[in-house]
């Protein structure tokens, strides 16, 4: 089963002028930017649409120093460029989530949502500690 959902872009692979994959976020109940998953490789047209909307992160991006796994069962990490978390996108995601509330499988790009701000996106559950 799949669902359509909105998420905030917190990072990308590729460059800001040619993004290839999006690292997705939602704010949690404490107001922290929580990583919720990533997209599959973007179609070139989607990258062209997003590129002018992405900007360099302000100092203190919540994901500074993080590493992101390249995939299940691998020790490789993604080469990630952080971006200011101000762009909202709509994705199609599998409803399966892990214990921390992250999508278990990469989501598929659907469209950018310039009509929504990051604060309007549904919050994610904070995982138990």
Brief summary:
The chain is mostly beta strands and 129 residues long.
Secondary structure layout:
Elements: E1 2-15, E2 18-27, E3 33-38, H1 44-50, E4 80-94, E5 108-112
Antiparallel strand pairs: 1-2, 1-4, 2-3, 4-5
Protein architecture, described:
- A 5-stranded antiparallel beta sheet has the order 3-2-1-4-5.
- It is mainly β and 129 residues long.
- It has one helix at 44-50, and strands at 2-15, 18-27, 33-38, 80-94, 108-112.
- The relative contact order is 0.31.
- It contains 1 helix and 5 strands, in the order βββαββ.
- The N and C termini lie far apart (28 Å).
- Helix count, per DSSP? 1
Please state how the strands of the largest beta sheet are arranged side by side. 3-2-1-4-5
How many whole angstroms does the radius of gyration measure? Answer: 14 Å
- Tell me, rounded to a whole number, the average pLDDT: 88
Coarse shape:
globular
Helix content: under 10%
Measure the end-to-end span.
28 Å
Would you identify the regions where 5 or more consecutive residues have pLDDT less than 50?
A: none
Total strands: 5
- Main beta sheet, described? 5 strands, antiparallel
Strand content: 35-45%
SS-based class: mainly beta
The secondary-structure element order is EEEHEE
Identify the notable features of this structure and list them briefly:
single chain, 129 residues, mainly beta, 5-stranded antiparallel beta sheet, 1 helix, 5 strands, 5% helix
